[in-house]
Write a structure and sequence with these properties.
- The complex is a heterodimer of chains A (263) and B (289).
- With 263 residues, chain A is mostly helical.
- Chain A has a single domain, classed as Orthogonal Bundle (MetI-like fold).
- Helix content of chain A is 76%, strand content 0%.
- Chain A has twelve helices and no strands.
- The radius of gyration of chain A is 23 Å and the shape is globular.
- Chain B has one domain: MetI-like (MetI-like fold, Orthogonal Bundle), CATH 1.10.3720.10.
- Chain B has a two-stranded antiparallel sheet with strand order 1-2.
- In chain B, 45% of the residues are buried.
- The chains are: A mainly alpha (263), B mainly alpha (289).
- Chains A and B meet through helix 1, helix 3, helix 4, helix 5 and helix 6 of A and helix 1, helix 3, helix 4, helix 5 and helix 7 of B.
Amino acid sequence: MERDVKTRWPGRLILLALFSFLYLPIAVLVLLSFNDSGLPTSWSGFSTRWYRSLMGNQDILHAAWNTLVVALFATLIATVLGTLLALGMETRARRSNGLEALVFSPMVIPDIVLAVALLTFLSRLNATMGLHTIILSHVIFDLAFVCSVVRARLKTFDFSIVEASRDLGASPFQTFWRITFPVLLPAIVAGALLAFTLSVDEFIIAFFTAGAGRSSITLPMQIYSMIRFGITPEINALATIVMAVSAGALVLSQWLNRENRSQ
Amino acid sequence: MTHRASHPNLLVLPAVAWLVVFMLIPCLMVLFYAFLTRGIYGGVDYIFTFENLARVFDPLYAKIFLTSARIAGLATLLAILIAYPAAYAICLAPKKWQPVLLFFAVLPFWSNYLIRTYAWIVLLNREGLVNNLLKSLGYTGEPLSLLYSEGAVITGLVYNYLPFVILAIYSSLSRLNPELLEASRDLGANALTTFWRVTLRLTMPGIAAGGVFIFVLSIGNFVTPAVLGGGRFQMIGNVVYDQFLTANDWPFGAALGMALIVIMIVLLLLQARLTAHFAGERREANDGA
């Protein structure tokens, strides 16, 4: 689109308003987490006491550990299955609408519906619920994201080098490890980071598939029960850490995938 | 295409099996449960009935559906009204800045949904920032109770899903053929007419994609009404939650969940039709230019 001087100022004002709206609430939260009094009413000096009190809170540390376990395993499974899925979908002779719908429906199904469906399924099987059931549920939506990132990379992948490798006598397995995998690696890691972020943040499905009791509570479940009781300075500190981790993972993911975006 | 992978179907098999077992079968089970009878001691009895589906249309629940649709509709409208100028402004920015602006517009979308919703409690509560700001501006009345209202829920929904709507509209706008806009102006149309008759029409698919996305996720939302509505009024997602976790009426909860899925499918199909329709128009316009 063309630009002229007249349209520059309104555009800048709109962008300023947009980014204020998007980032002010987050900025307030981060600022409050360093406020000594912890109250939103007045600034009483910089302090890291809420972070220290967080580190002494056993419930939160336990929830954080559970979240890490869930996110790591869900990401690992989804990355392997999602990469294979992307390879299969891109190399199929014909596009299958049914397959596309199956893979991408977790992105649009209301999460409460998926959550109750999983609860129904797991209780009908009399399955013991815990971290393992959260993991298997998270893989469902993580798959869609890993798959779409890897597929985007495959669209620009030159399959003739695979052919060349096979012609030169390499086995399919060797070809994958020495040729396809290294080319896809940045996209695979980018997809894995997205999956990890989603898993760390996911609340409702974890809530329904964690089973009773506090043993398999995750960080978002902990945050939910905390915010139901109103504002505590500890949540501000926790929120800041969680957002920093997500933002870090996303920046890394975008950076790894940058070549692909510019194409 | 024999030169590509040797066994594409084998490659998709593990993921497809996972999705069939842990997503498709559970969803079909919920569909099945919607036709069963609630057990006396919780659980379900295998007695076939249409009662649960009939209850979805009961005035009490029909009203909750309408409230949910109104809230989702207003959130959608507001999000489009904010996202369109925002996406337009990003398109007008220098080319090398556009990916950066877009990245920062979408970044919040990837951070924790609960935390982003909670941030509005901090802003809107009676001792919150907005009330403090009003006080410092000389407002002396009772602090406004902004929280736990429909307005707070709509604000939360718009805030949470805005990045995606911007992304959808931006991708439509950035593919707009500048020659069409020139042609329109050369033919004597002023800027407003050009925008109304050319730009807006050609970016309809983006608006529809973003709009359907935020509407579907809003109408079935659970977290935002629970946190910012303070449990004072319910949306469908909250009723589904209650049926499963407090009322223990799984068949009715299942019927409500299915109603949400039906709404989602209808809207996605409509969006696909609309996109196809406008894609045809776009092609014609480009051929003409």
